[in-house]
């Protein structure tokens, strides 16, 4: 019976007649392609989230290091300030000694200093 229907038509290389098998293959291909694209998208999102977590950890580490550097710098400034204060006291003591032992204050050198 099918021979009677298709008797007038020739079989072509590219058949444009829709069949259930062709539609099923098309839908299966679409489903597989869509599934692959979906899984690729999920994988890319997962990679981005992992990268974001790694970036957050890196930034937190950098911020901790900066805070530690600030603390270290403040401690070094305090140490230098204490040393400068000690040196300033030493300089004042040396200046006082020089003033006290200047030629005008010493009677034996007074005549040579005029």
Structure in words:
The protein has 114 residues and is mostly helical. The chain has a domain of 70 residues. The model has no long low-confidence stretch (mean pLDDT 84). It contains three helices and no strands. The longest helix is centred in the middle third of the chain and has 81 residues.
Task: Provide a concise account of the structure shown.
The protein is an all-alpha fold. The chain contains 3 helices and no strands. The protein has a domain at 1-70.
Helix-strand layout with pairing:
Layout: H1 2-5, H2 20-100, H3 107-110
User: What letter string, H or E per element, gives the SSE order?
Assistant: HHH
Approximate helicity band:
over 70%
Instruction: Please indicate the percent range of residues in DSSP E strands (runs of 2 or more).
Output: under 5%
Distance between the termini: 146 Å
Shape: rod-shaped
Main β-sheet: number of strands, strand sense, barrel status? none
Radius of gyration: 47 Å
What structural category characterises the helix and strand content?
Answer: mainly alpha
What is the number of helices?
3
Mean pLDDT comes to 84
């Amino acid at each position: 019976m099918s021979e009677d229907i298709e008797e007038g038509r020739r079989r072509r290389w590219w058949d444009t007649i829709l069949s259930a098998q062709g539609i099923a293959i098309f839908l299966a291909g679409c489903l597989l392609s869509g599934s692959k694209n979906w899984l690729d998208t999920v994988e890319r999102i997962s990679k981005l989230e992992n990268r974001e977590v790694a970036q957050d950890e890196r930034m937190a580490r950098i911020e901790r290091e900066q805070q530690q550097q600030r603390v270290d710098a403040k401690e070094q400034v305090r140490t230098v300030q204490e040393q400068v204060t000690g040196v300033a006291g030493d300089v004042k003591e040396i200046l006082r000694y020089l003033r006290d032992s200047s030629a005008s204050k010493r009677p034996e050198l007074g005549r040579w200093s005029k």
